[in-house]
Fold each of these.
Amino acid sequence: MRTLIKNGTVVTASDISRADILIEDEKIIALEANCTSATDLTFDAAGKLVFPGAIDVHTHLDMPFGGTVTADDFTTGTVAAAAGGTTCIVDYAIQTPGKSLQDALDAWHKKADGKCAIDYGFHVAVTDLNDDVMAEMPALIENGYPSFKLFMAYKGVFQVDDATLLKILKQSGASGGLVLVHAENGDVIDVLTREMLAAGKTEPLYHALSRPPQAEEEAVNRFIIMAELSGAPAYIVHLSDAGALGRVAEARVRGLDIYAETCPQYLYLNIERYSEPGFNGAKYVMSPPLREEGNEDYLWSGLASGNLQVVASDHCSFNLKEQKEIGCDDFTKIPNGAPGIETRVQLLYAGGVNGGKISVNKFIDLVSTAPARLFGLYPRKGTIAVGSDADLVIFDSEADFKISAATQHQNVDYNPYEGFGGKGVPQKVFSRGRLVFDEGKYVGETGHGCFQRRSPFTGL
Ligand code: URP
Ligand code: ZN
Ligand code: ZN
């Protein structure tokens, strides 16, 4: 089947041009100024931007965590992603202690295969290292899973020690993998948490106060030094703090292969949210926590300067009712995480491009091209080029949006950005040539999304 997207302004990470995009089945087969080929379907994108489908490399769907399971599964989560202009996600398959990494992947494939609206891949989170796990890593990289996640926090749950960090960095680096880290010092957090609980400080605000910026900065610094020692490329997920960003910037100046992502929550929300009335502060209990007002300016500068290369969502949704409420008397029991898979692209466009903080090309780089390059999906995904997958968004940069839990596709009972508005709406979203969202309506099919084997790490 041939599909034509005509008259649009095509935006990639490097160019802006007027072009018609000719698609055959799942692939882009031509980019022409004025395409006159016969087609089965034609979409007029006059006055609209056409950009590569966004890629969200940090999601948690159908994940057991904090005594419950995320509110979004692979169907609701990927439909919500598509609504927001995202056409590929990379989720985390988390190792159960005592089991293999392949067991984790088998479990996560079972959750996702046949259930996704858009394409998906997996990082592998290592929680329990032994010789067998080390031995598994090279083959996993070869087989399409070239990224490994480690947690320096969540003591007693996911946290690993420094020896594990170093060993995984060495093994991954030697085999073409990329190591991702949740960088917060879990031991420091554990001490502060106990002190707060002992003093009767149980409200959501104390989640933030028990995880100070220094706990993040110290872990980022330690991880960077381990990466330097091992010679391996490394990536810091959900970086939230100006001090931590300074460590990344310094490492990059020194020529180290260090990359970092931030998320919209750290660009738009701050610590005052924890003091919303009643138990509403629990909506924002995530790790790292929201920071002091003003911190976000440093993160925006980091995006503009290139010290932060990716904006991902860290979508990890729990309902306020019955899920976040597990911790109504004790902030340590509130499941950590917040929704954002649907709003990431629009928020970054509205605040970043319309707000004059980043160019439209930089915006595409942050949400699509750089994630594709770093995580082995480029040039199949992350750009608009002949031979690439026809993952495309027709984006109305003049249309208004207003975010509300009442109209979202995310399967959760609140939205952290309730009432936020701006200009820029994904009008039509195509996944491998197939229209999946049309004027706010899901027109796709569960199971259309395919697992994506990713290539070993080659840099940005
Ligand atoms: O609070 C968060 N970020 N929850 C999801 C798990 C993680 O740490 O990324
Ligand atoms: Zn994390
Ligand atoms: Zn996460």
Note: The pocket of zinc ion (ligand 2) is lined by residues 182, 237-238, 287 (CB under 6 Å).
Amino acid sequence: MNGRKVSVGSRKSELAMIQTRSVVRALENIYPDCTYEISGISTTGDKIQDVALSKIGEKSLFTKELEVALDDKRVDFVVHSLKDMPTTLAPRMIMCAVCKREDPQDALVLHSKHDGKNLADLPEGSRLGSSSLRRAAQLKRQFPHLEFCDIRGNLNTRLRKLDEDGQYDGIVLAVSGLERMGWKHRISHVLTPDVCLYAVSQGALAVEAREDDIEIHTMLSPLTHINTLIRCLAERAYLRCLEGGCSVPVGVDTQFTEGRLQMTGGVYSLDGSKEIKQTMTTEIQLPASGSTKLVSFNGFVMEERFLPIAKEATQLGVNVATKVTEMGAGTILQAARESIEQKEK
Ligand code: DPM
């Protein structure tokens, strides 16, 4: 690794750049002799700002151009929010590190005129900006007096729209994104999982590289936080089984402590009238020792000693998905997909 020059790709948004720099900083601490160059790359998702995410349809909206740059060897790795990554990766690509997860929960940011209020006591007909079908479905269910409307643009744009346009009473965003931007103080309330299940992998950063670039895998491997990886493997297995994609009303909550992995998975109809929710647990012990040779499993690079628990975690996600499917999740998701497609026309 000595003295190597590393080219890093990133989306150009301020949040993406902050995320990329945090990964580069972590690498600089481990490999101070290397030099790092970050290239900002525009993606389709960044260019189309005025159409609701769920209506754009194409998957990997925010990742495709970055993967092309990787494939062409213009960059050695790219940093993503893992929640934006499709459950099946692009050909020849692999996730070579998953960093320690920050707060995975969602947050409500209210207009200053509603200072001191919460969702339950907002006036009838208050308008909340969110392009996440998951957030809207869960909150409509519990707070039928509120209205939800699309809001696009990067975080800066959204906060400006909230503060200045006067058409939103509040917006719902990920805590982690707000914190990374230095806007923790704008959070009015954190929405705990009993109010809003978070998105699969929300709050976790992941590093994508070429599948055959062993040197980069080795270099990035120390950044992997095993607790985060195990939780995200379970969550992604759940989403993959439901053929969720990233824009359907599916939420999760996982915990991995004291040898026990617990997962709650939820599925919602778009209007929030239907909810299917299931919690399951499995015993998982982190291995104290074992082979640190790098292997790949389900699109992620990991040390060989973690393979058995990675499989356990994946099985838990599959089991929760199987259970909610038995309870009728398929019908709910099918109806949601059809009405999303309908809106695209
Ligand atoms: C995905 C969703 C959203 C992003 C859908 C969802 C939110 C879209 C919106 C898959 N990606 O969560 O149900 O609010 O219009 C995104 C954010 C982050 C990564 C911002 C956010 C930062 C948090 C993270 C957009 N992608 O969710 O507020 O790193 O997990």
Note: The longest strand covers residues 260-268.
